[in-house]
Amino acid sequence: MNNRYGAVRLPPYAWLLMIMTVLPVALPAQRVPFYNISIEDGLLQSQPGCMVQDMYGHLWVGTLGGLSRFDGQTFTNYTIRDGLASNVIHALATDTQGNIWIGSPAGVTRFDGRQMQHFTFHTSDNPGANNVTTIRIAADGAAWCLAAGKVYAIREGKSAAFNLPDSIIITSLLPDGNALWLATTKGRLLRFENGRWQSLSLPDARSRHYIIRLYKDRGNRIWILTNAGLYRVSGDTIVAHTVNGRSFDAFPPLLCMTENAGGSYWIGTGSGVIRFNDSSIQYYNKRNGLSNNNFPDILADREGNIWLASDGQGLFRFSGALFTGLDESMGLPSSQVMSIAATRNGRLYLGTYDAGLYEYSNGEISRVPFPDNVRRMTTTLAVRNGYEIWIGTRGAGLWRYSGGSFKPFIAPGNRLPSNFVVTLYTDSRSRLWIGYTNGAAVYEQDSFRVLPLEASSVKSFLQIGRDSMLIATNNGIKLLDGNDLYPYVTNTVADNAQPQCFTMRGGELWIGTSDNGIIRYNPATRQATVYDKSNGLRSDFIYNITTDRKGNIWAGTGDGIHRISFAEQTPVIYVYGKGQGVTGLESNHNAVCKMPDGSIWFGTTNGALHYNPAARLTRAVPISIVMQSVKVFGENITDTSWYDSTDAWYRVPYHLRLPYRRNNITFNFHAVSLSGNGQLRYRYHIKGLEAPWSNWSSVTAVTYSALPPGRYDFIVQCVTDDNEAVKELHYPFEIIAPFHKTNLFRLIILAGCILLGILLQHIASRRKQNRQKLRERLRREEQSKVRERTAEDFHDEVGNKLTRINVLANVLKTKVGNPSPDTYRLIEQIQENTMQLYSGTKDILWSLKPSNDNLYEILHRIRDVGVELFQDTEVEFVFTGADERMKQFRLPLDVSRNLIMIFKEAMNNCLKYAAATEVRMEVSLKERDVLQVRLRDNGQGFDMHYVRKGHGIRNMQVRAERIQGKLYIDAQPGAGTIITLTFRIPEGNSKKIPSYA
After folding, report:
1. Residues paired with residue 316 on neighbouring β-strands, in sequence order
2. How far apart are CA 232 and CA 221, in angstroms?
3. Angle, CA of 860, 861 and 865, to the nearest 5°
4. Strands 624-632 and 665-672: what pairing?
5. Alpha-carbon distances, residue 211 vs 150, 163, 253, 684 (angstroms)
6. Homologous superfamily, domain 624-741
7. Which of 75, 132, 135, 329 could disulfide-link 93, Cβ–Cβ 3.0 to 4.6 Å?
8. CATH superfamily assigned to domain 853-997
C-alpha cells in the first residue's frame, strides 16, 4: 500500500499519546454505522485520496489506480485505457458545466463524458510542474492548480504559471471570489487580490506548524488545517479554534474538512475522523466502527451524507445513526446474537451462538456466566414477571436466571419434551410458553404442562385471547383453545406456508414465513395479502416480526431489516441494509425486542442492531434521475441510424426512432442518490399509451413489448419516504410506423382509389367511345353505301334526263328552222341551264362518292375546278402544296362540301371581277393538323366596305363558320386580293383511310 503523506511523520509514541488523549473526548457506547464501500463493491482501488460530487449527483473518487464514478448503486471506472493521462489521481474538481477536472502526475485532464482534454505546464524552474496535487475552480471558471509548490491557472483552454513572490513554496490554495488564498510551508497565509498581497501568520508559529489544507465553509469563514491544530481567519488575524476551551493540537494532523447541513464540521486526520460543533467534539476510529487509517479527503454531499476517503480501506459513508450496533468491535465476544430480551429496568440481555449470555447496561457489555462457566449456545430468551430471565439453549435445556442465580430445567426431569429449546414466549397471565424441536410446554404455577404437539417443531407463540394461543409449527399453524388443540384453518395461502413468527396489528394477524415472505391475514374478512420479493421485500425468509408504537410492521429477514408503513392507503415497504448502517443483514429467529422508549433491538449474524426512532437519518434526496440504458429485445442499441446522439455519461441514445418491428424496449433508470436506494420509490408511465401510472415501488427497470407505432414519452417519477415528488425523467422516443400504416400510404391508397376510379371511368368512357366509333364507322360505311347508291341513281336518273333535255333542245332548234330571236334565245337558255345543271350535278355526284372524302382528292377537286374554270381565259392558274401526306386525312361530307364551295365561289369571283392575269392557290398543313388554304390574285382588288354587302362573301363567311374555320380577306383597290381559310381537321380523321371500290 502506498503512503500519500510521508512528509508528515511523528514518532510512534507521539501518535499513541495523542490518541490516548483524545479517546476520553467521546467514545460512543455503541458501534456507529459507518458504511464501508471497498473494491468488493466496485471501487477501483482501496486508496482513494480525493472526491467531488458533480451536478448530476455522482460521486467521483480519485484513487492510486484510476478514477471511479459512483451513482449510489454501481461504480463506473476509468483508467489510462479510457484516456486518463495517469492512473494516479491526486486531485478532483467540477465546474458549472459538469466537467470533471483531474489532477495527476501527468498534468490536468478535463473530462466532459465524451472526451478527455489534457493540459500540461512547462516551466524550467519546476521539474515537477505536472505533478498536480490540488485543483480548485474559481467563480470565473478558472482552474487553479498546485504542483510541486507552484501555482498554475487554466483559463479558456490555456494554461499559465502564476507569479509568486520570493520563490515561496505553496502547500495549499483556495480561490475566494476575486481573491486567492495561498498557504506556505512556513506557516504563513497569503491573500492576493487586485494585484496586491496580504500576509498573515499563524499565532505562536513554530517549526512544527505546517498548513495542510485551506477550507471555506458556508458562512464564508476561512479554516486552516495544520499538523498541529485547527485555525481560522478572523478579520486580519489568524486565531486557534477551540470547543469549550479544548483545542485541536492533540489530534493527529488535520488533513481535510467539510461541513454538513446541520452545522457540524468533520475533519479527516492522520488516524480517524473528528466531528465537532460549537459544544462538543467526537472522535471516531476503529473502536467505534470506523478505521485507524488516515483520511486524506472528506466530503458532505447534497443529501447530507458524509463521505470519508480512507487510505487503504476504501470509502466510508455516514448517513446518520438510525441504527447503531453492538458487535465484536464493541467488546461482544460473539457476532451471532441469537436472542434478545430486556427487563423492566431497561437491562438488555443478549444470547449468543457460541459465547453464552451477556448483559448490556449503561453502555457496558458484561458476561453472565452459567454456574459451571460453560458458554452454552443460547437460542432464545424471555422475561417473566419483569425481571426473571428465562434462557433456552441448544441441547442444555431451559434455564431461569433471577436474583443473580441460575436454575436449570433439563429433560428427562420435569417431564419436558427435549433439551433443544427453539422459542420462549410470555403471555399476559405471566405464563411461559416453551417451544421445542419436538413439542411444546407451558410453565405456570411453578409447574410444567406438556402440550399435545408430539413430533412437531414449534417455531413461535402468539396470544390472541385470554385462553387462546396460536402456535407456529413445522406442520402449520395450530390453535390452542383452553386445553383443546386444533389446526388453524384460514383457507388462504397461510395454510400452506411454513410459519416462523407472529405479531398482531389491530385485529390483523401478521405471519412471518420461511418461504412466502409476510402474510397479512384478517380473521374478520378471511382475506390474506402476501408481501414478498415480488412486491418489495428483499428476502422471503422472515426470522422475526414485531409492531412498533406507530403501528408499523418491522421484520428481520434474510437480507436486511424491513419496515412496512401505513401512512398511505397502500402499505409501503422500506428496506434498511448496508446503506443505512445495518451491518448484519441476516437476522436470527425471534431475535427482536421492543424497548420501553419505543426503540427496537434486532439480533443478527453480525451483532445486535438498535433502531432508534428519534435518531436522524439522512433522507435520500435524488439529485437527478438518469436513464442508464435503453435496450431493444434485451440488447444494446448499436444501429446509429436509429438515433441522433447519445448521453455523455451513460451513452443512452437521444431522439430514438425505432423500426416498427423493433418494438420490445427495456428501460433501466436510476435516481442518483448517495444515501442508498432503500428509501426511494419510483413509478413510471408512457405518454402515448392508454395505460395508467405504475404503483410506487423500488423497481428500476421496465420492459414494454409489442408497442404500436407512434410517438411516446417515457416518464419516471421518484419520491422519498415522505412522499415528496422530487424528480422526474422524460425520455421521448418513436416507433416508426410501417409504410402501410403511414399517412403517406393512406394518401397513396386514396390517390390510387381515385386514379382507379378515373381509370375505370376512362375505360368505361373509352369503351363507350369505341362503341360510338364503331357505330359511327358502321354509320359511315352505311352512309358510304347509301351515298354510292345515291350517286349511281342520281347519275342514272338526273344525268340521263338532263342529257335528254339537251338533246331535245337541239332537236327543237332543228325543227323550228329559222326561229325568231326570242325563240332562239329561249332555246339557248334551256341548253345553257341544262349544261350548268349538269355541271352542278357532277359536283354533287363527286361529293357523294365516299372515296372522294380524302383531303388529297378534295384539294385536287378544287384544283380541277380552277383549271376547268380558267382554261379558256387569259388567267394563269397555279395550284401548289398538296402532297401525299394529305391522303391520311378524311373530311366529313359537310366539311368537304363547304370547303369546295368556298373556293369555287372565290375563284368565280376572281374570274368575274378581279381582271387578274394570275391566280395562285397554296395549300399547307400546319402543326396540330391545321390546314391553311390561300387564294391569291394580282387583279384590281376591291373596296372591302362596299363588297361586304354582297351575298357571295357573306356565304363564304357562313360556310367557314360551319367548318369552325377562320376566313380572312385582304383586298385593296389596285393591289389584288388574298383569301385565306384556316381550319383544324376534325379529330379522328387522321388515320389511314380505307379504300373504296
Report:
1. 36, 308
2. 7
3. 115
4. antiparallel
5. 15, 21, 10, 52
6. Immunoglobulins (2.60.40.10)
7. 135
8. Histidine kinase-like ATPase, C-terminal domain (3.30.565.10)
Structural contact between residues 51 and 62, judged by C-beta atoms closer than 8 angstroms: yes
Task: Say if residues 915 and 940 touch (Cβ distance below 8 Å).
Answer: yes
The type of residue at 182 is L
In the 3-class helix/strand/coil scheme, how is 600-657 assigned residue by residue? EEEEEECEEEEECCCCCECCCCCCEEEEEEEEECCEECCCHHHCCEECCCCCCEECEE
- From the centroid of its chain, how far is CA 232? 48
- Domain 326-611: give its CATH superfamily: YVTN repeat-like/Quinoprotein amine dehydrogenase (2.130.10.10)
Element counts in the chain: helices (H) and strands (E): 8, 71
Per the CB < 8 A criterion, the answer to whether 623 and 673 are in contact is: yes
pLDDT class for 91, splitting at 50, 70, 90? very high
Torsion-angle region of 379 (φ positive above 0: left; ψ -120 to 50: alpha; else: beta)? alpha
Locus of grid cell 464564508: 220
Q: Is the pLDDT of residue 98 over 60?
A: yes
734-792 per-position pLDDT tens digit: 999 888 877 888 899 999 999 999 999 989 988 888 888 888 778 777 766 766 666 66
Most distant CA pair in the chain, distance: 194
Output the nine-digit C-alpha cell for 775. Answer: 357505330
CA separation for the pair 575, 679 (Å, rounded) = 7
For residue 413, the 8-state DSSP code is: G
pLDDT of res. 2: 46
For the beta sheet containing 222-226, the strands, ordered from the edge strand earlier in sequence to the opposite edge, are: 211-216, 222-226, 229-234, 237-240
pLDDT digits (tens, 9 = 90+) for 282-341: 899 887 778 889 999 999 999 889 999 999 999 999 888 788 888 887 788 888 999 999
Residue 290 is placed in which grid cell?
A: 470506523
Q: Is the pLDDT assigned to residue 646 strictly greater than 90?
A: yes
Given pLDDT bands bounded at 50, 70 and 90, which one contains residue 694? very high
C-alpha cell at 480: 390452542
Average pLDDT over residues 655-665: 93
* Segment 368-392, tens digit of pLDDT: 999 888 888 999 999 999 999 999 9
Sheet architecture: strand order including 421-426: 421-426, 432-436, 439-444, 447-451
What pLDDT, on a 0 to 100 scale, did the predictor assign at position 693?
93
Query: What are the sequence ranges of the domains in the chain?
Result: 12-41+242-321, 46-163, 326-611, 624-741, 770-848, 853-997
Do domains 624-741 and 853-997 share one topology? The answer is no
pLDDT in tens, 949-984: 556 788 888 888 988 899 998 888 888 899 999 988
Cα(377)–Cα(178) distance, integer angstroms: 68
**Domain range 46-163, CATH class:** mainly beta
d(CA 588, CA 602): 8
